[in-house]
Every structure is written in structure tokens, then in C-alpha cells.
């Protein structure tokens, strides 16, 4: 069996496994929907009043997208590794030609499709339920590589978490503990102006920061004030590093 067929076979199995877990499907697609409905449609932004939602609605699109780009890969890949380890599935995989890197590629591909669909849903709801206006330009297509690279990055990160955590519950707890601060402290919902000056350099350490800034430039227009190419290159470099680390972290049983 060729490498592409091995990856495709594992990806198909992972896709059907995801669809069988109705709770996972529900929270993957409806948790960000709930956020959009609550913060975008009910609370709404107050551009003149200051506070948490003091920017126009389109400013917060990166934050809504980050909910699926960040939480889904961390928890899904990490819990898959923990589940495989607990059920001795990696020992069974060791008897097949499928390598650790190919396994991670397959699961990353499935997560990319899932998160891509969820992102389309989020963008549609933001435009429908809020007064956000997304500039329709050729550069808007660059949302795709931003999302794909972010998924690759956090799938690799999730694989590392899955290796370090001692159980599936441990993976979920660790991923939530890491993802929740990153979600709000990576220039997504909270701008740098609302944070203490000393915290600014720490924001630069978050991989999600470069995703948020790049996406904001594409969806919020020139007012975002950030060059998207630099953020895209940084995100790509971090994605390569964390994916390699994640592939290496997958338990070796051969």
C-alpha cells in the first residue's frame, strides 16, 4: 500500500470515528455558534463605551475562529493519542506500515476539514447576526492557509499533550487549561491596549497571536494595521516546528 493510500485509509477511519461521537460533533460546531450568538448578537459591541467589546464586530472574528482552531485540535488529537495508548492501539499500528508521521498527517487532515467547515459556519453567522462587514478582496482567500497552518500547529501541540498526559481526562484538563488563557490573551478578544504594559511581550509568545493578527488584517481591513505576510510566515514556521515535535511525541512501539 502506498503512503497516500495509508494516510487516506487512516483519515477515513478517523472521520467516521468523529461522526460517531455525537457529543464531539455538537460541541465542535455549536460551541463557537453559542459564542457568536451571545457576544455578537445579544451582548453586541459598544465601540464608544470602552470595555471588553469596545471594537466593531469584525474586530472579533479572529477570536470566534480561534475557538475551533485552538480547542478542537488540542483536545481531539491529544485525546486520540491517550485513547490509542490506553487501548494498546499503537502496538497494533506498529504491525502495519503506517508510520507515526503518517498517522498524525491523517488526523491533521481530518481536523482541517472539520475546522474548515466550522469556520465557514462561524463567518456566515457573524455576518448574518452582527453588523460586521468583511471586505471582499482577493487576499481574503488567504484565510485558508491561516486556518490550515493553525490547525497543523495545534494538532502537533495536541500530540505533545497526548504524550505527556496520563489519561484522556488529563488531556482534556490540560488542553482547556492551556487553551482558555490563550484564547483571551492572544490579541483576539482583548486588545493590547486593555492589558498591562508589561504583559505585551508575553502576548508575542503565543502562536495564536499571529493567527489572530493575520486573520484580522484580512477580515477587518486596513484598520487592523498588521501586515498579514509576516504573521503568515511566523505561523508557518511554528506549525512546522510543532508538527515535527508532535510526530516525534507519538508513542513508539516498534
UniProtKB/TrEMBL annotation:
Which residues are listed as membrane-spanning? 24-43, 63-82, 103-130, 136-161, 173-192, 228-250
Q: Does the keyword Nucleotide-binding apply?
A: no
**Where is the protein found, in the record's own terms?**
Membrane
**Presence of keyword Lipid biosynthesis:** no
- What is an example of a Pfam family matching this protein? ABC2_membrane
* Region forming the signal peptide: none
**Primary localisation category:** membrane
Q: Which GO terms describe its cellular component?
A: membrane
Coiled coil regions in record: none
- In terms of superkingdom, the source organism counts as Archaea
Keyword field:
Membrane, Transmembrane, Transmembrane helix
InterPro entries in UniProt: ABC2_TM (IPR013525), ABC2_TM_bact-type (IPR047817), ABC_2_transport (IPR000412), Nod_factor_ABC_transporter (IPR051784)
**ABC transmembrane type-2 domain location:** 23-253
Q: How does it sit in the membrane?
A: Multi-pass membrane protein
What is the protein named?
ABC transporter permease
Amino acid at each position: 500500500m502506498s503512503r497516500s493510500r495509508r494516510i487516506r485509509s487512516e483519515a477515513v477511519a478517523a472521520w467516521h470515528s468523529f461522526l460517531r461521537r455525537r457529543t464531539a460533533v455538537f460541541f465542535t460546531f455549536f460551541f463557537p455558534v453559542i459564542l457568536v450568538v451571545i457576544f455578537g448578537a445579544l451582548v453586541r459591541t459598544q465601540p464608544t463605551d470602552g470595555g471588553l467589546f469596545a471594537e466593531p464586530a469584525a474586530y472579533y472574528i479572529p477570536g470566534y475562529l480561534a475557538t475551533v482552531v485552538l480547542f478542537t485540535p488540542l483536545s481531539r488529537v491529544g485525546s486520540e493519542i491517550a485513547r490509542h495508548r490506553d487501548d494498546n492501539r499503537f502496538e497494533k499500528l506498529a504491525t502495519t506500515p503506517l508510520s507515526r508521521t503518517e498517522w498524525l498527517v491523517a488526523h491533521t487532515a481530518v481536523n482541517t476539514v472539520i475546522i474548515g467547515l466550522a469556520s465557514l459556519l462561524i463567518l456566515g453567522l457573524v455576518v448574518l447576526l452582527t453588523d460586521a462587514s468583511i471586505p471582499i478582496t482577493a487576499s481574503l482567500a488567504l484565510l485558508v492557509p491561516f486556518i490550515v497552518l493553525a490547525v497543523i500547529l495545534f494538532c502537533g501541540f495536541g500530540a505533545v499533550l497526548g504524550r505527556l498526559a496520563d489519561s484522556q481526562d488529563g488531556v482534556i484538563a490540560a488542553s482547556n487549561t492551556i487553551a482558555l488563557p490563550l484564547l483571551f490573551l492572544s490579541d483576539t478578544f482583548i486588545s493590547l491596549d486593555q492589558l498591562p504594559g508589561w504583559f505585551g511581550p508575553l502576548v508575542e509568545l503565543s502562536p495564536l497571536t499571529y493567527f489572530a493578527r493575520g486573520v484580522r488584517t484580512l477580515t477587518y481591513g486596513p484598520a487592523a494595521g498588521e501586515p498579514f505576510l509576516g504573521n503568515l510566515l511566523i505561523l508557518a514556521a511554528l506549525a512546522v516546528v510543532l508538527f515535527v515535535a508532535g510526530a516525534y511525541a507519538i508513542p513508539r512501539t516498534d
